[in-house]
Amino acid sequence: MTTNEPSRTQWLGRWGFVLAATGSAVGLGNIWKFPYMTGEYGGGAFVLVYLACILCVGVPIMMTEIALGRRGRGSPIDAIRRVVTESGRSSGWSLLGWMAMLCGFMILSFYVVVAGWSFAYLWKMVSGGLAGSSVDDMAAIFGANNANPFTLGAWSTLVTVATMVIVGKGVQQGIERSVGWMMPGMVVMLLVMIIYGMFSGGFGQAVNFLFAFNASSLSSEGMLAAMGHAFFTLSLASGAILTYGSYLPRRASIGRTTLTVAIADTLVALMAGLAIFPVIFANGMEPNSGPGLIFMSLPLAFQAMPLGTLFGILFFIMLSMAALTSSISMVEATVSWLADNKGVSRKAAAWGTGIVLWVISTLAMLSFNVGADWTLAGKHFFDWLDYLTSRLMMPLGGLGMALLAGFVLKSQAVKDELNLPAGIYALWLFMVRYVSPLAILVIFVDALGLVAVDFGAHWLWLVLILLVLTLAGELVSPRLRRSLQTSD
Ligand code: PHE
To answer: What is the structure's pLDDT at 250?
Structure first.
């Protein structure tokens, strides 16, 4: 099952993987998407469900994906095929790998547009295009930025080309080093803005909005959005983490690396919320202003704070970098699959993928101008790419991986690969067997309206049930362990 192991590149150690995976996880999802979704779905209750999903669904599934990648030493399709073959199970499970690969590709198709916004705003900061603008001007500037398909397309094309150049060169060069300074830089920038927010008004309101939970503001749809976002922000079920895991050296600890990445990712998202919402409230803006939220609000703060232009430039540099270290991870699965199976070089695979990507992302980009009327069921192409991936494909893919690792594969193989202390292993097993699948199914069934009960209004119960199940898992874990020992 590990036929190509000796030739497969590896990270420079546990730290190399942590940096690359953090680079993948921390991106526009944390700084652009998390705040605007929190604004759209009502604040604290959304944040709570999101955090619960990170813990109960995201972390166990991330461990699973890293283990699958390292065991199978390949892109999602190959890795999953190898591990199921090793366990003597149907290779049909590799469909999960196909879906993940497609999902990463679809995400990138709209992600490059948003990353293009970040580059465009960097340029506006540098060239002074935002100076002296009022709240209303900001909305107009964002609109004008999107109105011209040629300039907007040029920015997303730039991101596509940059991504493909980096991916074509191979995973290690540059990624580890750039994340090493980008992450601390981003944290410092967010801290500067949080401190500014503390002194310029709106901070109390922001804290309240983010952390006071008002159960009634959370719809079933909001729950699905929160869960989908947990997958998105941790780069799960989209080929990224699994493929990165395939380069992880044997001796690295999967448990510790996962926790490090998940904690870093969550902290950055919460900090982004604390940096952005004070500006929103202090300027009397609406939290539910949609995907333009950070672009319409943050420049207001940069205008008002001391050294604002410098901070603004630094911020958009960091954001663009964070977007790039995520975007390269989205195509890594496709490119490594092509290079491993189709006899093409990495470079050729990257450019081939880039051309297809460019066509699809151009269609996504047109949603903001020429194609403003091209909608299906009220959604643009851009929205559909986001919706299909975050709300359907990632949760379904995650469900598949949890069931695969929890029930289908030989438990000894999974256990060896995870190499966790017994108690933690039992907890992980309980999560992937019961808690994550159950959470995904309940939220799905609820949001798609498949049953008459609207859990959205009773989410507290749901959290409670999950907690009880988790505790029960701890209690029955010795039994689980015994049953595993006898069944192998
Ligand atoms: N996690 C990235 C972010 O938050 C997005 C991403 C999704 C990256 C899927 C890779 C795969 O920006």
So the answer is: 86
**Residue 112 in this model has a pLDDT that exceeds 70:** yes
Q: Which helix (H) or strand (E) holds 319?
A: helix 308-341
| Gap between the Cα atoms of 149 and 383, Å rounded | 17
Q: What is the DSSP secondary-structure string of 67-100?
A: HHHHHHTSSHHHHHHHHHHHTT--GGGGHHHHHH
How many distinct structural domains can be found in the chain?
1
Terminal C-alpha separation, the chain: 20
Q: Domain for residue 125, yes or no?
A: yes
Q: At 346, which helix (H) or strand (E)? A: helix 346-366
In a domain, 469, yes or no: yes
Spell out the residues 6+ positions from residue 156 whose beta carbon is closer than 8 angstroms to its own.
Answer: 112, 113, 115, 116, 361, 362, 365
Distance CA 366, CA 305 (A): 35
The tokens describing 139, both together, are 């909305």
Domain contains 443: yes
* Phi/psi at 218 (5° precision): -105, 115
Query: Does residue 389 line the site of ligand 1, with CB under 6 A?
Result: no
In a domain, 1, yes or no: no
Q: What are phi and psi of 376, to 5 degrees?
A: -130, 125
Per-residue confidence (pLDDT) for residue 1, from 0 to 100: 39
What is residue 3's predicted lDDT score, i.e. its pLDDT?
Answer: 42
Q: Are 229 and 390 in contact (CB under 8 A)?
A: yes
d(C-alpha 231, C-alpha 98), whole Å: 17
24 lines ligand 1 (CB under 6 A): yes
Q: What percent of the chain has pLDDT over 90?
A: 70
CA distance 340 to 346: 9
**What would the two tokens of residue 323 be?**
């977007």
Residue whose CB lies within 8 A of the most ligand 1 atoms, among 175, 233, 331, for a mutation test: 233
Angle (CA) 198 200 206, round 5°? 55
Measured in degrees and rounded to the nearest 5, phi and psi for residue 454 equal -100, 95
Q: Collapse the DSSP code of 379 into the 3-class scheme (helix H, G, I; strand E, B; otherwise coil) and give the result.
A: strand
Closest alpha carbon to 141 in 165, 125, 160, 161: 125
Residue nearest to atom 11 of ligand 1 (CA): 235
Q: Which domain holds residue 39?
A: 14-483
Interatomic CA distance for residues 367 and 383, integer angstroms: 9
Q: How far is CA 184 from the centre of its chain?
A: 19
Tallying the residues shown for the chain, one arrives at: 488
Residue 379 phi/psi, 5° resolution?
-115, 140
Domain containing 374 — which CATH number? Answer: 1.20.1740
> Does 395 have pLDDT greater than 50?
yes
Q: How far is the CA of 477 from the centre of ligand 1 (A)?
A: 33
Q: How many other C-beta atoms lie within 10 A of the C-beta of residue 392?
A: 16
